[in-house]
């Protein structure tokens, strides 16, 4: 049986090969978008929140941990713990959430 690699998997593996896990790059992009939005004259920068869906949840959490002006994070359909992923026999597409060695330092509920 031929194994099919998803686009998320391919991108995530290329990112790790250059020493920059995909979630880290996505956090950088999200923080840049936040800065752009917060600088807009029609936006109240004290009321900016993030809604994330699926595997974007950890990225939103990391961005909020790094940027104190992000007031709230809400997510839908995201794993709540890396440990939960690691202990399940089957899981969905998670390649775009992988941070090598993350559980040695923290888990998502710690963020």
SSE arrangement:
Elements: H1 7-17, H2 22-39, E1 49-53, H3 57-66, E2 72-76, H4 82-87, H5 102-105
Parallel strand pairs: 1-2
- Biggest sheet strand line-up: 1-2
Biggest sheet details = 2 strands, parallel
Poorly predicted regions:
none
What is the helix tally?
5
**Helix and strand pattern:** HHEHEHH
SSE class? mainly alpha
- Report the sheet-strand fraction: 5-15%
Straight-line distance between termini: 40 Å
> Roughly what is the average pLDDT, rounded to an integer?
90
Number of strands: 2
Q: What percent of residues adopt helix (DSSP H or I)? A: 40-55%
Radius of gyration: 15 Å
The global form is: globular
Describe this protein with a few key phrases:
2 strands, two-stranded parallel ribbon, 111 residues, 5 helices, globular, mainly alpha
Describe the protein's architecture and organization.
With 111 residues, this protein is mainly alpha-helical. It has helices at residues 7-17, 22-39, 57-66, 82-87, 102-105; strands at residues 49-53, 72-76. The protein has a two-stranded parallel sheet. α2 packs across α3 (57-66). The longest helix has 18 residues, at 22-39. The radius of gyration is 15 Å and the shape is globular. 20% of the residues are buried.
């Amino acid at each position: 049986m031929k194994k099919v690699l998803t686009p998320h998997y391919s991108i995530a593996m290329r990112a790790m090969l250059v020493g920059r896990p995909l979630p880290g790059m996505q956090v950088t992009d999200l923080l840049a978008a936040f800065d752009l939005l917060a600088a807009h004259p029609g936006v109240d920068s004290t009321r900016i929140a993030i809604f994330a869906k699926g595997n974007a949840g950890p990225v939103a959490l990391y961005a909020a941990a790094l940027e104190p002006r992000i007031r709230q994070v809400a997510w839908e359909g995201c794993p709540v713990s890396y440990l939960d992923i690691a202990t399940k026999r089957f899981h969905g597409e998670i390649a775009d959430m992988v941070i090598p060695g993350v559980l040695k330092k923290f888990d998502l509920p710690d963020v």
